[in-house]
Design a protein that fits this description.
This protein is mainly alpha-helical. 59% of the residues lie in helices and 12% in strands.
Length: 129
């Protein structure tokens, strides 16, 4: 038997066990396992794990899963906040434009009013009173 192939002469593949008794332990298996023509070839690649590793690693994996879950939640919240910030920023820009138009309008009214007063002679003002 070729050392790189399994019982059914297929190339064996390197897999990784994630069971609680062998977390992260690598093994060789049939490349066609679970399909028609595949076999049940199995050979550990890594040596057996010590008892301490078997106790600690599953807890670490759970901790990683929880941290990744929290990360996804924070990323979703960040996307929501970014969307809200863009909306508020657009609204702020619209308000700035409204104030600019209002200011220019008032400036125009003030300038026209001032020029009308300058063009009016004293006699006309006395007649109005």
């Amino acid at each position: 038997m070729d050392p790189s192939s399994c019982y059914c002469s297929q190339l064996r593949t390197l897999g990784c066990s994630w069971t609680s008794s062998n977390p992260g332990r690598r093994f060789y298996g049939c490349g066609q396992y679970g399909t028609v023509g595949g076999c049940n070839y199995f050979l550990w690649f890594d040596p057996p794990m010590c008892e301490r590793s078997r106790q600690v690693i599953p807890g670490l994996l759970r901790s990683i899963d929880q941290t990744e879950s929290q990360l996804h939640q924070v990323q979703a919240e960040l996307r929501t906040v970014k969307t809200e910030l863009q909306r508020v920023d657009q609204r702020g820009k619209r308000i700035q434009k409204v104030f600019l138009v209002a200011f220019l309008f008032l400036l125009l009214i003030f300038k026209n009013g001032k020029s009308n007063i300058e063009n009016t002679n004293v006699g006309e003002v006395k007649q109005l009173l």
